[in-house]
Amino acid sequence: MTVSADDLETAVASVVETLRPGTDRDWRVPADGLDWDCWHTGEHLGDCLLSYAMQLGSRPADRYVRFLATVAPEATPAQLLEFVEGSGRVLAAMVRTAPAAVRAWHPYGMGDPAGFAGMGCVEALLHGDDIARGLGLTLAPPAEVCSRVLARMFPQVAAELAEVDPWSALRWATGRTELPGRPRVRRWHWQAAPPDERG
Fold first, then answer.
1. Which domain covers residue 130, as residue numbers?
2. What is the pTM of this model?
3. Residue 43 contacts residue 37 (beta carbons within 8 Å)
4. DSSP β-bridge partners for residue 37
5. Which helix (H) or strand (E) holds 130?
6. Whether the Cβ atoms of residue 50 and residue 68 lie closer than 8 Å to each other
7. Number of domains present in the structure of the chain
């Protein structure tokens, strides 16, 4: 199962729409389950999305592009969300325009455009949820997007979680929660490479 640029845009929009009502709150409170506060988690999210776009654009075979995106320290939460939303759109544009044969380095495999779309979705949804929970908000992303992301990025558990709510399953696969009969995952990683190219 593949993940598309449309899925990525939907994931980022879900996060932005959830967090926008909380832009008048204190984003220096801790993000749920992280050492970062909500503000720095948002900055990290935007940087991740732009970094993945840079990987697809430059296509290094053995490292990340030496690149770091930061937000001006005086940026408001609303302006931080602009950074996240814009970064998501840049990655989505790269996913749409990169040929399917393109591969770029990630520690978890040589990613294709769909792999980078999936990674962007995981970063957006899970860190968006970390921020939302820190602010007392609730993220409820579309189940069909969560299903596709889980199947593409976590195939080792997707089949056995087929009867679980897709958002809960994705949160479990990334160490955010327990499921009945399944303790919280302490170490996890996704599959960046296409299914037929995994070692």
1. 5-142
2. 0.96
3. no
4. 30
5. helix 113-135
6. no
7. 1
